[in-house]
Fold this sequence. Notes:
The complex is a heterodimer. Chain A is of the alpha+beta class. Helices cover 20% and strands 31% of the residues of chain A. Chain A has one domain (6-25, 61-166): Hotdog Thioesterase (Thiol Ester Dehydrase, Chain A). In chain A, strand 4 and strand 5 form a beta hairpin. By secondary structure, chain B is of the alpha+beta class. Chain B has one domain (10-150): Hotdog Thioesterase (Thiol Ester Dehydrase, Chain A, Roll), CATH 3.10.129. Chain B contains 3 helices and 5 strands; from the N terminus they run βαααββββ. In chain B, strands 1-3-4-5-2 form a 5-stranded antiparallel beta sheet, covered by helices on one side. In chain B, a hairpin with a 2-residue loop joins strand 4 (109-120) and strand 5 (123-135). Chain B is elongated and about 55 Å long. The mean pLDDT of chain B is 94. Strand 2 (99-109) of chain A pairs antiparallel with strand 2 of chain B.
Amino acid sequence: MSELPELVRGWIGKAVVVVCDTVTVEKQSWVTFCAAVHDGNALYWDEAFAQQHTGSTIAPPAMLPGWASAPEWYPGKQGDGIRPMELHFMLKEALDYPNGIVTSVDIEYHEPVRAGDSVRVEQILREVSDERSTRLGPGRNWIIDVVFRRQDGVLLGVQAMAFLGYRSGAVDKEQS
Amino acid sequence: MNPELSLQARLPPRRIEITTKSVIMGAVASRDWQPLHHDVVWARSQGNLPDIILNNYTQAGLISCYVTDWSGPAARIGRLRFSMRSPICPGDVLVISGVIQEIEQQAELIWVVIAVALAVGERVATTSTVRVALPVTEDAPSVWQCPTMAWRP
């Protein structure tokens, strides 16, 4: 079993990655997401209906984490830029796991996201397991807590994401 | 109008055919460019996966949509938990089902906890619990007007 590197130990309990002003939320983006999952909820589409409940149309809550993801390309981008769940990729690299998957998500939704908002995100490393054998190959599990706030500080959501980082092995095709 | 609420009541199941297009569309719309969601060669050779896989945001979107289509659009999801136990890939026929596990009144809200499963045949690929708020009566204020301090998802 390999020791957890000092660099990674130092990340535990800290907001290692802070991302803000990555994207300005706009309706057409969330309509595309609704189309992908066939979600016709009137709060996302219908201004008149939404007016009675939320004051204006809102973005689907399931999209909340996506508002912190930078465009795939932007002027002046260097290297990989800030990747979605950047801390997860930093862990993969620091621990030498080429692959990683999300195994579970626990998200609380607070204020809804609307067109014109931008989202500030803090990614905090909660814990990293010892290395173990998994069905995908040798790997470790880790949990990252993510706090989402609007540009004015209002709480939008709190998420705990559990990941598996692994090296491919000769195993079956189960996810984890 | 609220749906009829009783413990262990089952939500109507929903059948969804997963395609390469739907996997990629969900990933792109949720701004997720990881290759295991759009590049089958990468998914098989580098990811040790059978095909590209449905990303977690799209699964969250499918689960949320399933619940609010049942509850009505004015319902407000407070908390969504899900565990992805095995991949969902193009060609899979997904059946989403749900069972009411808890019903709790909090002032003018009713909190309902629903256990949701995403199954491919006999294989349960993802399990989830969704905590959703509904107005206690038709005349009650919208759950979206709940004061911030009283919102306890």
